[in-house]
Predict the structure.
Amino acid sequence: MGSELLYLDTARLGRMAPGATAAQRDFATLAAEEGGSPAFERFLARGAASWPDGDRVRFPGLTGWGGVAALKASLRRLAGSRPDLPVLLANRSAQLMKLAGRLLCHPCEHILGTDLGWPGYHDILEAECRRAGRSFTAVPVRDRLLGVAAARTRWSNSSAANTCAAGATGCS
């Protein structure tokens, strides 16, 4: 996997990138075989680099995991915060999406998105839009990007932008 970005979202079922599929499969196998063992805890804390070579070969889908410290460092960078600030993790993604929806609704009268998001998050965003008297449009791009046609042809950035713009024309 190397320099590929890894995204795991086990809160939903649906289409997954091949790298995410491999990671989820290997994680399930590792969890089933190791359970809460010291090896499993070491993997979660320190990442795949803490494994012997044999385990990296056995679970190639997990080699991109750098451990909790690497995750927190990435989140700090993403948030643009100072490296010395603590990062707290909690299973509160719905609350985070609600906050994001409220922040989006504050300056925006209409929010344009795609149908690539998790339906539960779209529901939260739509509810926040209704609460704030705003509107939300999800442009259908999933089938074009991930469907059978996508395997044969590339969809250019300008085609994607034009599709999103066309989806926005019906916005009030």
